[in-house]
Amino acid sequence: MTSELPPLPGWLALRGLRCLGRHGAYPGEQEQERPFLVDVALRCDLRAAVATDQLTATLDFAALAAAVRAVVAGPSRTLLERLAFEVAQALLQHFPEVAVVRVRVAKPEPPGLDAREEAVELELGRAAGS
């Protein structure tokens, strides 16, 4: 049945993934582990998943979560922009079936802002021909 369906581009998303990391620009932020919330949305062809209704025909969300957590737990970064970029880059590298990835990284209760969260969102796609 998969071959009977035309390509079916769509988005798969994981919201509010809790990750621990040591990122920030203020004194002491990189010395203490703190939570970050990460949202990811991945554009890919959903044809096989729709046709077969099998877990093996879609992205492995456990592997997706592990890839995100590995980046956030990695080397400290000053800016959320850099961290979001590295998450997006890792997802494109680990999941070749993904054409575009959107990443939002939020730092709950950022110091000095009196805000619920500070966040950065970016979208990264594959270069033509890759």
Describe the overall structure.
- The chain has 130 residues and is an alpha+beta fold.
- Helices cover 25% and strands 35% of the residues.
- It has a four-stranded antiparallel sheet with strand order 1-2-3-4.
- Helix 2 runs antiparallel to helix 3.
- It starts with 8 loop residues before the first strand and ends in a 5-residue tail after the last strand.
- A hairpin with an 8-residue loop joins strand 3 and strand 4.
- 18% of the residues are buried.
Offer a concise description of the structure.
This protein has 3 helices and 4 strands. With 130 residues, it is of the alpha+beta class. Strand 3 and strand 4 (117-125) form a beta hairpin.
CATH topology: the name is GTP Cyclohydrolase I, domain 2
Q: Sheet bearing the most strands, described?
A: 4 strands, antiparallel
Beta-strand content: 25-35%
Distance between the termini: 27 Å
CATH hierarchy: architecture: 2-Layer Sandwich
Total individual domains? 1
